[in-house]
Amino acid sequence: MTPRITASPTISIDGYMAGLDQDEANPLGVGAHELHEWIFATKSGREMIGESGGSEGVDDGVFNANRNDAGATIMGRNMFGPVRGPWGESDWRGWWGDDPPFHHPVFVLTHFERPDLVMGDTTFHFVNDGIESVVLTARAAAPDRDVHVGGGAATLGAFIKAQLIDELQVSVAPIYLGAGERLFEVAGEWPEGYEVRDVIAGEGATHYTLVRTSPTSM
Fold first, then answer.
1. Residue 84 has what pLDDT?
2. How far apart are CA 121 and CA 9, in angstroms?
């Protein structure tokens, strides 16, 4: 069975995936940390950052399923870090410390070459191929598991526009951002080529499962 291509973004009610002024102090932009408060209120989310406690309700089940199904991740350079242009002498190693939470191969889309970065059982591969080529590479790295596409919004939007995502788990946090990086015009107005399979109301977010309505050509 061909591995699925999945994504699980969190957006605001007005469709934003990140706020303005993203930098090292504000990875998601000013005010946008509130988007993911539903994750860090869960037991699985707190375990991911080395903390105890947290809820074990609907939100925990959704986050845990999204996290455990993937065998490889694709992300844009903006998700990996705030460095722009050629990597040069940059020693930036991601937002996640010495033990990133992926525990599988990660493919970072970039226009500039950089050697692989090995951190524990996670290896970051820096690639400048097109998105269709990266999908094939990631599938080969995870032949029996899903390939997960992360952010940022521009990267995920390109995959959605090309209808490369098989299943899209959109979590809508109950906040308005008003500006930033938008994935959709508004929650509930979903992209062409996708339909809602189910909706689950969680404790801190509402979770929409969208599936592609046409077969993939890959």
1. 86
2. 24
